[in-house]
Protein: POMP protein
Organism: Helopsaltes ochotensis
Amino acid sequence: NSRGTASLLKDSISFTEVSASGLFEGHDLLRRGFTSVKNELLPSHPLELTEKNFQLNQDKTNFATLRNIQGIHAPLKLQMEFRAVKQVQRLPFLHSSNMAMDILRGNDECIGFEDILNDPSQSEIMGEPHMMMEHKLGLL
């Protein structure tokens, strides 16, 4: 059953999918944070979209290079490994470091901006575990 496995593999859910929307529902400040007009606008700089898609573009370039050097089997094998690593995760309400993905991409020896200034344990947004598991299992 491909639909059942696809619903089990979802990484995270947004709060708008979980909350009940009605006529009298207000903005939930504790769960969604302050509203920002900046988030709803188009990118302010032409390089912003390129930076958002940097990892995807880098993977495409690496796969094309691998295909030219080693043949079609190398990028296919690497893509299968990426898919296998993406499927193995923690529960949806727990942060996953995706260490195996970093090892496959070669980022395990690099210290980046997100390693220092993006500590998920200090995040202010934490979902309700029961609601997130029920949504992941398709019970909601």
Q: What stands out?
A: The chain has a mean pLDDT of 75. Residues 91-109+127-139 form one domain. DSSP finds ten helices and no strands in the chain. The two ends are 19 Å apart (CA to CA).
